[in-house]
Every structure is written in C-alpha cells, then in structure tokens.
Amino acid sequence: MNLDVVLQLALQGFLMGGVYSLIALGLSLIFGVMKVINFAHGEMMVFAMFLSITLLLGWGIDPYLSLLVVAAAMFGVGYLVQRVFVNRILDLPEAMQVLVLVGLAIIFENGTLMIWGGSDISPKTSLALSSLRWGPVTVDVPRLIAFALAIIITLMVMIFLKKTTIGKAIRAAADNRFGALIIGTHINRLYGICFGIGAACVGAAGALLVPLMPAKATMGAPYTMISFVIVILGGMGSLVGALVGGLIIGVAESLGTVFLPSSMKQVVSFTIMVVILLFRPQGLFGAKS
Fold first, then answer.
1. In this structure, is residue 287 part of a structural domain?
2. The domain containing residue 163 runs over which residues?
3. Are 37 and 230 in contact (CB under 8 A)?
4. Which residue of 7, 23, 121, 248 lies most exposed, with the fewest beta carbons within 10 A?
5. For the domain that residue 14 is a member of, what is the CATH number?
6. What is the pTM of this model?
C-alpha cells in the first residue's frame, strides 16, 4: 500500500469531514433542543445548493460569498417550517413525528425537482482548478476553504449558544422545558430560532459543497443518513460530538475507498455506527441516561 496515497486520502477525508460536521451540527442542535430528528435535513441542504447555484449562474456571485445569503434564506425557511409544521408535532408519538418530517423531505425534494429539474448541475467556480502542494500530498483549494469556513461557522454557533442571551435561553429550554415556561420564556419562538439555526447551518454547508461536487435534486437522503450516523457517533445533542464525529466519518469514508469501491464508502460509516451502538450507545460525547 502506497503511504502517499493513504496520506492523500486521509487529508481529503479530514477536510470533507469539516463540512460533514457543519451538516450534522444542525441536526444535533435540533434534536438536542426539541428532541426531534429532522429527516428533511439532507433535502434542505440540496435545496440550499441549488439556491447558491442560481446566484452563481444568474448574478455571478461566488458560493463563498452567496453563503451568507443562502444561510439567511434557509434560516427563514427553517423558522417557518418549525412554526407551521414541527411545532404541531412536538408532543406527538415519535412515529407521527417521523411521518411528518419524512413528508417534508419529499416536499423539499420534489420542490427542487420542479424548480431546477432532475439533471446534475456542476457550475464552474473561480477556484475550481486551484490546488496546493504540501510535501507528498496535493490539496484542492476549494476543499480547504470549505473546511476552514465550516469549522469557523461551527465554532461561531457554539459561541453563540454559550455566550449570548438567546443562546443561553435555548440551552435552558433544552435542559428544562417546563422550567423555562414557568419563568416566562417564549418556548415556541426559541424553538423556531433553533430550527432556523439548524437550517442555516445545513444551508451554509450546501453552498460550500457547490464547488466540490455536482448537485442533483435527489442526492439529499444519503446526507441525512450521514448526518444521523455522525450524531450517533458523537452523541445525540452534543455539538462537540457533531464536530469530532464529522471529522472521524470523513477520514473513515475516505480511507475506506482503499479497500472498497467509492460507491460503497457509506458501508464504513454504518459499520462505525453499529459498533458505537453496541459498545457505547450514548456516543463519544453523550451522557449516559
């Protein structure tokens, strides 16, 4: 086995893992606060990718710049989805929640198909062919920028939740919903903001993925599953776990292509998930029940 090839794959996987972390961060945040799994997470990311592509092709706005616009738009979409749909199912049995959120995933996917069609779209960006040479490995500049921005956004969300008044209120509502209600906290508004932040995270990740891969309306479901695996690995509701878990899964999937075809790389992720569920079901950073 060529060591240079292994280093190359490990580095590419680590950089891609940063984007995975940002995607999973939104899913983990939503679950940690509302105890709801957003099964439309991947489809919302794809919708954001096509929004970024539209801004690129229509107005020439680079995805790294349109990221702010796309994230803001997805925050609004997430807030609206929570207040109109999710807020009505919070107290329902888990099976009913799943049905509604899977239905939302189908709506997002088919809405994307209706607006942008079913063909792959891979627009050229300004840095698409740029690369850097670090010793024996080559790094794609778009992948490096995506990793850096994803980590920065992830850390900013963590700081927001720990240092700001709204962030502290969201954490308080997650810890004790009844106590937050007693002191007059507007829980529904906080839940809307929380869901909006989760949607903004996955929207930013969608914009970062535009220079890295072709966009297709039906590609959302695998990313929902990857996010779910990362959240289980890191610990349900743990933001630090989402960050670390994304990096681990990114490296594991990339190195898995040494032994498996690239089309089967998700086998590695699900194998890790099964091992975690067997030996540490609370995840790496999750607390025991």
1. no
2. 3-118+135-279
3. no
4. 7
5. 1.10.3470
6. 0.92
